[in-house]
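Morning run. Coffee first, then this:
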Amino acid sequence: MSKDKGEKKDPKKKAGKSLMEKRADKKAKELDKKRNG
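And here it is:
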């Protein structure tokens, strides 16, 4: 619960995290394409 409060207090940190997550997701998708295709 305290972690959630920290995220709400620091939106910049949350945004940066989501950006990194998006990058990781893109990489994972590309790897899947290479594996399947």
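The first helix runs from residue 2 to 9. Good start to the day.
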